[in-house]
Amino acid sequence: TSYCGTGPDYCTSPDCQYKYGPQCDANVKPAGSSTANIPRPHIGSVPYGGAGIYDCVTPGTVAVTFDDGPYLYTADVLDKFKRYNAKATFFITGNNLNKGPIDVTPAWSNVIKRMVSEGHQVASHTWSHQSLDKVDSETFQNQIIYNEMAFRNILGYFPTYMRPPYSQCAEDNCGSKMSRLGYHVVYFDVDTAGYLNDDASLIQKSKNIWDKAIAGVKPSTDSLLEIEHDIHYQTAYNLTDYILQSMYSKGFKSVTIGECLGDPAANWYRSGNNSRF
Known about the structure:
One of its GO terms (molecular function) is metal ion binding. The chain is α/β, with parallel strands linked by helices. The protein has helices at residues 8-11, 74-83, 106-117, 137-155, 171-180, 203-215, 233-249, 257-260, and strands at 61-67, 89-92, 121-124, 157-159, 161-162, 184-185, 190-191, 224-229, 253-255, 269-271. The chain has one domain: TIM Barrel (Alpha-Beta Barrel). Helix 2 runs parallel beside helix 7 (233-249) and helix 6 (203-215) runs parallel beside helix 7.
């Protein structure tokens, strides 16, 4: 059963009934021309679309990735990484959680610019966090293109890396579409479930998951691809410090997803004005 109403409880993605509510986050289109017709050649050796990527290939690296932001805590997360001279990848959702579109909300556009200037990688987590396996073709396209347009409005370019919401992207449908759209589909091999343990009394559960993962690998031969969410307080202010201290004490280095896959930085983005990036 669905209910009509106004305000954040009704209009915030991903729960807003976007087919019936024109003011839903999913239906807010970024300004400017569409990026849909920009060429999307497959460059480099990292696979596009398909079954997706679950593992890094560069020994001694940990790709810490954050989904769903930017949010209230993201700038403080960046501060923590800066203290370690560590890098991360932020899978950005363009308009979710009643936070306002990233390209017209100065707090978000500024923090995205800061991510790039400090050497982090930004990637797409769709426009409003709809499951790509459960939407029609028009909504699917909008979820990708609207986020590209917002990135273009902020940076002048948009990512070639993405992570599907809820990790739902069937290889024979969504995966094929993402290949045509020129995206590397990224999953993970470590999930501390910080989003389930967002309380001071619970976050140790996530630390225990991390401890088990890092104990089972060696920097001389192994790597990790780890997922977090910068929209959760305990992840931002407790778990992030714990993970960074732990990995560096064991000889690992926190890097971007592109670095951990051996992909040159020039391949991480496409120009937003139809010219070569």
